[in-house]
Design a protein that fits this description.
The chain is mainly alpha-helical and about 160 residues long. The protein has 5 helices and 2 strands. Strands 1-2 form a two-stranded parallel sheet. Helix 2 packs antiparallel against helix 5 and helix 4 runs antiparallel to helix 5. The N and C termini lie far apart (about 55 Å).
Length: about 160
Amino acid sequence: MRRNHVAIALAVTLLFALVGCGGKGPPAPGPIRGSGPNTCPLDEVTWLEVVEGYDKNETVELLAELKAAAEADKDALAANADIGAAYKRVVEQRSSRTFRVSQETLDLTVRLRQIACDVLAGVFGEDVSKARDAYISLATSAGDAKKKVEESPAP
């Protein structure tokens, strides 16, 4: 019986640690909070399919669009304009069908959405420098990934 209580207490402690209920303070960089389907007005990434033999040309095009979108959303953040508008444009142009891409491309697309969702949810608070840095990092990563795909042999 005591073993069950210990296991339950351990599970509850682990659950609180995983959801971040432990303490006060600014959100740590890393996984994005507040970006689920019920809290973010931006469409989720359901139109990308990760496959080993992904379409190289489409992947390169999408990575270029992600880089441009991250830069545009960073500028929108600085101007206090429509955050996520660049992401929305990518979705509107691409979501009518499924695109076969690399895992890295899917990850970057999801990350762009998550950054915008966090900005919209106020996760960064008044200090938008972390959001700006996240957009810059994403734009750099998308550019690097694009170059890597361009230089790779066709899958």
